[in-house]
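ok trying again, last paste got cut off:
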Amino acid sequence: MPLDYEVTKSYVDKDTYTYQWYTEIGGLSGGGTREVPFPIGCVVVKNTDNVSGMLNVHFSFYSVTETMANFYRDAFGEFDKEDIRALGNKYAGNDSVNLESGKTGTAKFTVQDIDMDRNEWFWEYEVTPGTKTEYNQVEKQRTVTKQRPETRYKKVTLFDYWLHY
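nice, full thing came through this time. structure:
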């Protein structure tokens, strides 16, 4: 039986890295740096079940360069998510959160290969809940009979007693 959950929020955060470039053609050269923003997909999930469990989030990011998108628009007109999905690159990954009952956690996936300023992109996610196992408490019982040693007496003559003991 799958774990009960609720997605309370999904959003894209971003981070940056510094891109450095240098070009030399003939006797001319040039270079520079630029901050490149990349997306971080975030999915906030809440365990609404009465037991703890794992929630796995599968992320898919799709991206196409702005140049390719503009070329496609010029040639064919409209350009939408399905075109990006078909023509672009796919970046996929998973993150899991292990949550106690009633608790909330955030699954994240980062894609540094997508330049948020120069690419057209979108993302989607799918949550796969773990299965919960119901436990039945079993009480082990054992019957213990208490016993005391029994002392038995045998009547013997005093002569037999001295002889044998």
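cool. The helical segments are 66-76, 81-87, 158-164. The radius of gyration is 36 Å.
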